[in-house]
TrEMBL record:
Protein's name in the database: H-NS histone family protein
Protein's organism: Sutterella massiliensis
Pfam families recorded: Histone_HNS
Domain DNA-binding protein H-NS-like C-terminal positions: 80-109
InterPro entries in the record: H-NS_C_dom, H-NS_C_dom_sf
Length: 110
């Protein structure tokens, strides 16, 4: 992150803590103009903007909790019909294939 963006983020965090101001406040209008200029300058898309008021912040721990128990798609099919999603501990059949000089990608189904 460069120095300019750090200053902008610091200023925004100070403003976030400040009480709401009337819509006709000239300082507020100037701030909105500045944000609009920055969005156009950096070609920021609407879906790239995320604010605490607009969505709930999901941490990495929350993501792991959300995905617990979900079935993962099978990506590898072994020589004897074994299935593997490609994540977690490498199964024995994949290790054996690689030890014999084979490639796990030969068993990839998509």
């Amino acid at each position: 992150m460069n120095a300019t963006s750090e200053r902008v983020l610091k200023a925004l965090s100070r403003l976030e803590a400040a009480p709401a101001k009337p819509a006709n406040d000239p300082v507020r209008r100037r701030g909105i103009e500045l944000v609009q200029v920055l969005v156009r300058y950096f070609h920021i898309e609407r879906d790239e903007l995320r604010f605490r008021d607009w969505f709930s912040i999901v941490t990495e721990q929350d993501r792991r909790t959300i995905n617990v128990g979900r079935a993962k798609p099978v990506r590898y099919l072994g020589p004897n019909g074994e299935r593997w999603a490609g994540c977690g501990k490498t199964p024995r059949w994949v290790r054996e294939v690689e030890e014999e000089g084979g490639d796990r990608e030969d068993y990839r189904i998509f």
